[in-house]
Every structure is written in C-alpha cells, then in structure tokens.
Specification:
mainly beta; 2 domains; 5-stranded antiparallel beta sheet
C-alpha cells in the first residue's frame, strides 16, 4: 500500500512541474580560485557559493553521483592535482590523489558505481568500472571498431533501471551508431544499432530518463552540402535506432560543452545554450510537452550537473532493494505525528544537522544542534506526507524515509 501511495505522490509531482531542479557547478572566483555553486534552475535568488581548495580543474571532468550526493571534478591546487569531491548535502569537500576517470563517464545512480569509456588504441575502446574510493579500474570488456579514431565527448547516458550504458559513436562508415552495454551482466556483451537520421547531424549531450525509459540528445544538423541547419532536442529509440525530433532550439547557435543534464523528478532536459548575442542561457526543456523556457546561468559557471539525490533515494536506495551500510542513527517513531527522536546506539556526542525534505526536494524542516545520544524534533507544524530525513554529522550523511501522519 505504501509503495502505491508513493508512486502516486511521485506522479503528481512530475505532472505538476513545480518540483525544484537542483544544479551544481564550478566557477572562477574574483580572487582567482574556484567556487562551487549550488542553485535552483531559473531562480537567481537561490545561488549558494562555497569557496573550494582548487585553483583550477580540467574541462569536461565533472560527474555527479546521486547515490552519495557527491559532485566530482579533476581538480588542481597550487601543490597538486587529484579527484575533488563536494557533497551537496553536507557541503563537505575533499581531494584524493585519484583522477583517472574520463570525461566520457556516467554514474549508476542505483548503485553509486562509475563506468567510463576509453580509446586505448586506434580501432579499440574499453569499457571500465571505476572504483572511486580506491582509484582503480576494472576492465569489463573491449569493443573493436575499425575506423574509430576517437570517442565523442558527452555522448553517454545510463539506464539505472536495467544497468545499461549507452554511447553514440562512429566507425569507418558514414553514420552514427548507438552502443548499448549491459554492465551488470557476468559476461561482457554489447549491441550496436545504426542510427536512422533524416539528415546528417552530430549527436551529443546524451541523457537517460529513468522514469519513462527514454534516451534524449542534442542534434546539430546539416544540409546535403554540410551547411549548418539547426539545433534540435531529439529522442533516440534505442531499439530501432530511429532519431525522433522533439523540438528545435531556434534562437541558439551553440552550447557549452559538458553542461547537459537531466532532472529525473520533472523530466527536464537541461542545456546551457549560446544565443545569437553570444550570451549564455539555461535551457529547461520539458520532455512531457516538448516546450522549453530559458533563464540565467550564474556567473561564469561551467561543469554543470543536476543533483538527482532525492530521486535516487526514493526510487533506488530507500526501497530496500539495494545493500546499504550498517545503520548508525535510529529515527522513531515512524510513522510519526507530533515529534520524532533521533538516537545513536553508541551515544556519540557531536554537532549535527537534521533535515526533513519533501518528495519534490523542498526543505520542510531543519534543526541544528549538539547531539549527545538522543535528540527530539518537533513535527507539530509539519504537514502530513512522505519525507526524506537527512542526518548530517561531520562528513557523514545518513538518510531515512519518514511518514508524517
């Protein structure tokens, strides 16, 4: 019964289009360092700035892990370089010596595993599972493609429901191909489907809709003489290879590399476009209506990613289907009415932040305090509903699903 109710609530949120779209990116600060920015799409008042330890980063090196709320960059400091991480829930940052994953990579938001593609030599590219904690690769398999001399950046998407990595690439033929790689299988395999396009084009900015199981991309098209013809949001039928035009982005002549993302809660395909005045704008394309609106992009931010933490929590992590670390904090009662209690079996003291977040990602309650074994939180002003409860202590973030009656 609860599962049915949750599905209904989620559907209403999607159809309403009122859920927040949480974004994160990197920008050069006035002092020459690198800031991490968090904001809600199209809301200039929502921008939050967090100075980082970085002095620079590699273009196209960002990735977002919705399973753990970590935003990653291959970053530079004055002394070293490595894998920079920023947790969007605790706002904690760190730098590890690892920086080996490529800009052709995707996280599986249902497991937290990272997969990437690499061109190891002409005609061959490898599919790898990257251990982001250890900084090591596990080779899943190698794809032999005669005529392939490189990989297309930002042409990769991930189906977290079935564990399929999608990539659009080319070989020595005239067209483009869609590769579907089931990375969870015991043995390595893939399918290659030639893409059916009305006119020559370049496909990039792949993103997978895990609610409706659809694959979207940006298509820059050309006429028979290879003159530029326009930019279009397209859907790729991953069974037949048909490329279906959904809408033209008429006022945009270019796009910022590594800026595409997809908000799973609202079904919004996001890009940063460059208009005819050479100004950058955030494009929020509604895949339910095939319409889009545009708005601001804060400062000189790049490496933009969509924070789908609450979607991953609700659909994969808190469903009981994924193995989770041993629980440390206890939240009770659940369901709750007027108050809840948070306790720790070891009674470890320390500062904490407790947040109650609605299923559309809006903050309903936040309490900061000092934890000394057990704390009480008043819910009398909290409307009934299903919430995600976050408990942040130091660098640790624990999450529960809470029903308020």
């Amino acid at each position: 019964m609860i599962k049915t109710i949750l599905s209904t609530i989620f559907l209403l949120i999607v159809l309403s289009g009122n859920a927040q779209i949480s974004l994160v990116g990197a920008a050069t600060s006035q002092g020459g360092g690198i800031d991490i920015l968090k904001w809600e799409a199209l809301d200039p008042e929502s921008v939050e700035t967090y100075p980082s330890m970085l002095t620079g980063y590699y273009l196209g090196s960002s990735a977002f892990d919705s399973y753990n709320s970590n935003y990653y960059l291959t970053g530079l400091t004055q002394l070293t370089e490595g894998l920079f991480s920023f947790n969007t829930q605790s706002n904690q940052q760190s730098l590890s010596p690892f920086s080996n994953f490529t800009n052709i990579s995707e996280f599986d938001m249902s497991t937290g595993k990272l997969y990437d593609l690499r061109m190891d030599s002409t005609d061959y590219f490898s599919v790898n599972e990257f251990d982001i904690d250890e900084g090591t690769d596990s080779l899943l398999g190698v794809i032999y493609e005669p005529g392939a001399i490189g990989l297309i950046v930002d042409a990769i998407g991930f189906n977290a429901n079935e564990g399929i990595l999608y990539y659009v690439g080319f070989n020595d033929g005239p067209g483009l191909y869609l590769y579907a790689i089931p990375v969870r299988d015991d043995s390595f395999s893939y399918t290659r489907t030639e893409l059916i396009m009305d006119s020559p084009g370049n496909l990039s900015s792949l993103n997978y809709d895990n609610v409706n199981n659809k694959l979207y991309a940006l298509n820059s098209t050309f006429d028979s003489l290879w003159n530029f013809d326009g930019n279009f949001v397209v859907e790729i039928d991953y069974v037949t290879g048909e490329v279906i035009t959904r809408a033209e982005l008429t006022e945009f002549i270019g796009f910022v590399a590594s800026s595409s993302s997809f908000d799973q809660n609202t079904g919004s395909y996001l890009l940063v476009g460059i208009d005819t005045n050479y100004m950058g704008s955030m494009i929020v394309f509604d895949t339910y209506t095939d319409t889009y609106i545009t708005g601001f992009v804060p400062g000189n931010v790049s490496e933009i990613a969509c924070d789908n933490t609450f979607f991953a929590l609700n659909n994969y992590i808190l469903t009981g289907t994924q193995e989770r670390p041993e629980v440390e904090f206890t939240v009770y009662p659940n369901p709750a009415s007027d108050r809840i209690y948070i306790s720790h079996p070891l009674g470890i003291p320390g500062n904490y932040t407790a947040r109650l977040i609605s299923m559309d990602g809006k903050l309903a309650l936040e309490k900061n305090g000092y934890f000394n074994g057990r704390t009480e939180i008043d819910l009398e002003r909290t409307p009934p509903g299903v919430y995600i409860m976050q408990i942040i202590s130091g660098e640790k973030v624990e999450t529960r699903k809470l029903i308020v009656q």
